[in-house]
Design a protein that fits this description.
By secondary structure, this protein is of the alpha+beta class. The protein has helices at 99-106, 112-122, 139-150, 156-177, 182-200, 207-214, 218-229, 233-251, 256-262, 268-279, 283-289, and strands spanning 5-12, 16-23, 32-36, 40-46, 51-55, 61-64, 69-74, 78-83, 91-98. Helix 3 (139-150) runs antiparallel to helix 4 and helix 5 crosses helix 7 (218-229).
Length: 290
């Protein structure tokens, strides 16, 4: 039987391996095999829905939803099987880090806090956030993963970049599992939402999508954002699009239609109507009179 998955090796060094696993034939049932190396920490980010996972060392089966993740320590080399049902796509990212690298990074001999973090990691206390609920990826985690997937440089620069991004991911994980930081995270929520919008306003994003990424109710997200910035998410996105459009129209020779698409408008008529409502002049007239 031919291989029905695409296993893309994104990065490999002496200490770190990053693999993107993606289903090529979702209409056919199959099982993907994932290797966990001896004395390794494995970060799994689930990027499709309803992924079943079963390790060869236990009979327990786990079911993960889209945008969930786990940090799992394996003392021995193990193989896990992952699969979906009902012809659903299978897609996940595996970041494998050897124990020695984490040990040197955290340095548990330095203080009790470092020792406690490493102990929690080796005891697999970062698998379930509440009882048997795997943690949800935050917006910042999504951004970091996107940066890792899109990074094109090789060699030393890639190694330094990957290691820096992994440290960021670990910090976010430790904070998410630390109850002492709950209030601080809540205060930072509007800033995280704003950062996500600033980088994705050209897409058709809504509060529902942001809520799924953060793991927070969309109504709370709307309330938190408006309370902090005194503007709704919808109006903020519209403002960003219009400011970007005006800048492109006055400072470039890009076609109006292309500007509309770049600013998130599928139809130029909608773009022209919104632009004229905002600035009192059509995009064409603004360009001709500049």
């Amino acid at each position: 039987m031919r291989d029905q998955t695409k296993s893309a090796l994104l990065f490999r060094s002496e200490d770190i391996t990053i693999v993107m696993q993606e289903d090529l034939c979702p209409e056919q049932s199959f099982r993907s095999h994932m290797l966990e190396g001896k004395s390794s920490f494995n970060l799994l980010f689930f990027m499709s829905s309803n992924i079943n996972l079963e390790a060869d060392d236990c009979g327990t089966r786990f079911l993960f939803k889209k945008n969930q993740y786990i940090l799992h320590y394996s003392s021995q080399e193990r193989v896990a099987e992952l699969w979906t049902e009902n012809q659903e796509i299978l897609k996940y990212l595996q970041i494998q880090i050897n124990y020695r690298y984490i040990f040197n990074l955290i340095n548990p001999e330095a203080n009790s806090e470092s020792a406690e973090i490493l102990e929690n990691m080796t005891r697999n206390n970062f698998i379930f956030l509440h009882k048997e609920t795997p943690p949800n990826m935050t917006v910042e985690m999504h951004m970091i993963i996107k940066e890792i997937l899109n990074y094109s440089k090789k060699g030393l620069l890639q190694k330094l970049f990957v290691e820096a991004e992994i440290i960021k991911l670990l910090i976010l994980i430790f904070e998410q599992f630390n109850d002492k930081n709950t209030l601080q995270e809540n205060r930072e929520t509007p800033e995280i939402i704003k950062k996500f919008i600033d980088e994705n306003y050209h897409r058709n994003i809504k509060a529902e999508e942001i809520g799924k990424l953060i793991g927070m109710n969309q109504n709370i997200i709307r309330k938190e954002f408006k309370s902090q910035y005194h503007i709704t998410i919808t109006h903020y996105i519209a403002e960003l699009r219009m400011l970007k459009a005006k800048k492109l129209i006055t400072n470039s020779n890009i076609m109006i239609k292309e500007i509309a698409i770049e600013c998130g408008y599928e139809y130029i008529q909608n773009f022209t109507r919104a632009f004229k409502k905002k600035f009192g002049i059509s995009p064409e007239n603004l360009r001709n009179n500049k």
